[in-house]
Amino acid sequence: MASSTTTSGQMHRVTDGSVHTPLGFKATGLHAKVKRKRKDLGVIVCDVPASAAAVYTLNQIQAAPLDVTRESIAEGGTLRAVIVNSGQANAVMGKVGVADAYEMRDKTAKTFGLDPRDVAVSSTGTIGERVQMEKILPGIEALQPEATAASSNAFAESILTTDTCTKETCYATEIDGKTIHIGGVAKGSGMIHPNMATMLSFVTTDAAIAPEHLQQALSEITDRTYNRITIDGDTSTNDMVLTLASGKAENKPLHPGHPDWAHFIQTLECVCEAQSKQIARDGEGATKLVEVNVKGAPTAEDAGKISKQIVGSDLLKTAVFGTDGNWGRIICAIGYSGVTIDPETIDIAIGPHLTLSQSEPVDFSEEAVTAHLEQDEVFIEVDLHIGDSSGKAWGCDLTYDYVRINAGYRT
Amino acid sequence: MASSTTTSGQMHRVTDGSVHTPLGFKATGLHAKVKRKRKDLGVIVCDVPASAAAVYTLNQIQAAPLDVTRESIAEGGTLRAVIVNSGQANAVMGKVGVADAYEMRDKTAKTFGLDPRDVAVSSTGTIGERVQMEKILPGIEALQPEATAASSNAFAESILTTDTCTKETCYATEIDGKTIHIGGVAKGSGMIHPNMATMLSFVTTDAAIAPEHLQQALSEITDRTYNRITIDGDTSTNDMVLTLASGKAENKPLHPGHPDWAHFIQTLECVCEAQSKQIARDGEGATKLVEVNVKGAPTAEDAGKISKQIVGSDLLKTAVFGTDGNWGRIICAIGYSGVTIDPETIDIAIGPHLTLSQSEPVDFSEEAVTAHLEQDEVFIEVDLHIGDSSGKAWGCDLTYDYVRINAGYRT
């Protein structure tokens, strides 16, 4: 397990922590030779039946593994393993795709001595290509999961597609005087406009919590984290966030009436937000993370909707890439977000620099705004002055590399 | 007037026709020196009070000229002139922007001997920059409109921003045995995702029609034409389609009970669709026009919504740029369009080549699909097999040049 310096009751980040850090979990990934060089097959396993919760893409076209995973979770609400391949999405493959997803599940169950209903299946990659079962099945047999940072990192590598880096996080805190850990691994990059999902994220914890309460926590947090990132406005067919809780921290089971429930939610949200920001920062072709914070909105939902509309605007994204403090594109996006606003009361700041006050242009320093936009984290803050709620969203810039990557991804 | 070879009752395109072709209209454009070299100020005038109809952007942030135009049309439903500047959008400029728009209207009225309420005002360009009145006002005085193809073309040039070409169309037909003409000039390029509008389009006709019936026709047609194009998903603050009818063709006034009403609608739609396709083809950085036709939908509205979702997908647009027959991105967009579909009954063709049949991949020739995608007009056809309605949408590819243009547009 990674080093950790717990302060009682205080949430803190665990250095080198990942999905193996919570007690009971092992992971690994390997190169099954579907991709030319990079790892393409990974697994997370749990020593005990783990409470499971998941959220799935809202795209009506859903890849076969999502149905198989739903079926596994429906059986008792627990899981022991999740198998993931990258390269082929196993989406829109008709009956053969469903059969392949079941075969991946069966092979994983047999390899690790589990019931098929203990196994979730997840795929990411090109839509409409068949999973290369002749490579994946022997690959599953060769997987040897461990509880080390290196093996979690191998898993994190194995689920990447056009991502340029692995995405891992771990936080620890105390619940009932017991230390609990929450670790996460994610992939993102393209076709990212969760509604929900459009990416994969796997979160493990050793907290004790029943499946229904874990689902409640995950659903609530997803709306404020994974559902607030956008790379390109495309909602994928394959994406899911899967959370597994081993209970090995031996806290009293968490539920909404537990005195530490809010604290647990806060810690889980911290992991999910960190994952979301890592996905946004590594958007296809991205050079910058963009965070938009909308304040003064009638509801948190409205604030989130406007934040996401701004961060998803191609014109804003190209302006950020070009370090152009073009606030006109920000107010334009506010105006077409679908939320009723007052056109006369809007403030817009880029970094610490106010550019619009009460909907009137402010005489600001272009140089100072450009300097902020040259940073690798860009902050945009909007105050609507029509309410007390706020909400954030995350995205990235739109660059030549986004076009290059997607003009040539498949061929 | 341009040459025309009318076949009785038959609609046909008028070679070199434009907004000056319908009887009663003159136009021109000039270089008021706001832009470095290109024309930046234009006017259309009518000899008589013309029935006027307009549709405006649905963005809640609306530029000052839109309110001024609304006010002019509200006074009696007729107009005699529209003045247009390009370079500054006169949007989000507070009180000074409103005053500038009124001053442009007053100056135009005075120059052409009209009442201010006879004049519409339109602006396009950068949001949050003040119109350079010291150049625009003398420019208005210098405008000398004529009824020639050259002067209409000067107007068409004067309203462009990042457009690479002028957009003009004219159709003629017979109504009550009288020849009527409908001419149009448009600009588009960026911030184009009409809902309505997000571009400028000016349509003139010499047909006789009352303002309320012209408005009815325009609103109906806009939903199937201008509202079906998308360049980048951004809905602008400035856009409008303005239609003026001089009545000089001397047909019996058109209305929904007129025997030629459907024929008039068809002719007007022809002009509006031609304008829309020209805007889509000249999207910022675009190299190709993409037309998506969705069939077998429950309603025409559903078909249009799905068509527009497909044509607006950044991933599809980059695939078209890269001539990659990636139908997975098409079905993905179908799945998140918000319209309820049957995931098992979808056909997708790229050009004449079927790639997906009843939601199962078809073994197609990649070379043949790539060859179609190399054309400068790309056709995508979807059959949902769940109804009898169809609808089209138009867009363009997403290229390196879109990023280049928008990363550097303002600075």
UniProtKB/TrEMBL annotation, chains A, B:
<feature type="site" description="Involved in the stabilization of negative charge on the oxyanion by the formation of the oxyanion hole">
    <location>
        <position position="125"/>
    </location>
</feature>
<dbReference type="GO" id="GO:0006592">
    <property type="term" value="P:ornithine biosynthetic process"/>
</dbReference>
<feature type="site" description="Cleavage; by autolysis">
    <location>
        <begin position="197"/>
        <end position="198"/>
    </location>
</feature>
<feature type="site" description="Involved in the stabilization of negative charge on the oxyanion by the formation of the oxyanion hole">
    <location>
        <position position="124"/>
    </location>
</feature>
<keyword id="KW-0012">Acyltransferase</keyword>
<keyword id="KW-0808">Transferase</keyword>
<comment type="subunit">
    <text>Heterotetramer of two alpha and two beta chains.</text>
</comment>
<protein>
    <recommendedName>
        <fullName>Arginine biosynthesis bifunctional protein ArgJ</fullName>
        <ecNumber>2.3.1.35</ecNumber>
        <ecNumber>2.3.1.1</ecNumber>
    </recommendedName>
</protein>
<dbReference type="InterPro" id="IPR002813">
    <property type="entry name" value="Arg_biosynth_ArgJ"/>
</dbReference>
<feature type="binding site">
    <location>
        <position position="284"/>
    </location>
    <ligand>
        <name>substrate</name>
    </ligand>
</feature>
<dbReference type="GO" id="GO:0005737">
    <property type="term" value="C:cytoplasm"/>
</dbReference>
<keyword id="KW-0055">Arginine biosynthesis</keyword>
<keyword id="KW-0028">Amino-acid biosynthesis</keyword>
<dbReference type="GO" id="GO:0004042">
    <property type="term" value="F:L-glutamate N-acetyltransferase activity"/>
</dbReference>
<feature type="active site" description="Nucleophile">
    <location>
        <position position="198"/>
    </location>
</feature>
<keyword id="KW-0963">Cytoplasm</keyword>
<feature type="binding site">
    <location>
        <position position="198"/>
    </location>
    <ligand>
        <name>substrate</name>
    </ligand>
</feature>
<feature type="binding site">
    <location>
        <position position="411"/>
    </location>
    <ligand>
        <name>substrate</name>
    </ligand>
</feature>
<comment type="similarity">
    <text>Belongs to the ArgJ family.</text>
</comment>
<dbReference type="InterPro" id="IPR016117">
    <property type="entry name" value="ArgJ-like_dom_sf"/>
</dbReference>
<feature type="binding site">
    <location>
        <position position="406"/>
    </location>
    <ligand>
        <name>substrate</name>
    </ligand>
</feature>
<dbReference type="Pfam" id="PF01960">
    <property type="entry name" value="ArgJ"/>
</dbReference>
<feature type="binding site">
    <location>
        <position position="161"/>
    </location>
    <ligand>
        <name>substrate</name>
    </ligand>
</feature>
<dbReference type="GO" id="GO:0004358">
    <property type="term" value="F:L-glutamate N-acetyltransferase activity, acting on acetyl-L-ornithine as donor"/>
</dbReference>
<dbReference type="InterPro" id="IPR042195">
    <property type="entry name" value="ArgJ_beta_C"/>
</dbReference>
<comment type="pathway">
    <text>Amino-acid biosynthesis; L-arginine biosynthesis; L-ornithine and N-acetyl-L-glutamate from L-glutamate and N(2)-acetyl-L-ornithine (cyclic): step 1/1.</text>
</comment>
<comment type="function">
    <text>Catalyzes two activities which are involved in the cyclic version of arginine biosynthesis: the synthesis of N-acetylglutamate from glutamate and acetyl-CoA as the acetyl donor, and of ornithine by transacetylation between N(2)-acetylornithine and glutamate.</text>
</comment>
<feature type="binding site">
    <location>
        <position position="187"/>
    </location>
    <ligand>
        <name>substrate</name>
    </ligand>
</feature>
<keyword id="KW-0068">Autocatalytic cleavage</keyword>
<dbReference type="GO" id="GO:0006526">
    <property type="term" value="P:L-arginine biosynthetic process"/>
</dbReference>
<keyword id="KW-0511">Multifunctional enzyme</keyword>
<comment type="pathway">
    <text>Amino-acid biosynthesis; L-arginine biosynthesis; N(2)-acetyl-L-ornithine from L-glutamate: step 1/4.</text>
</comment>
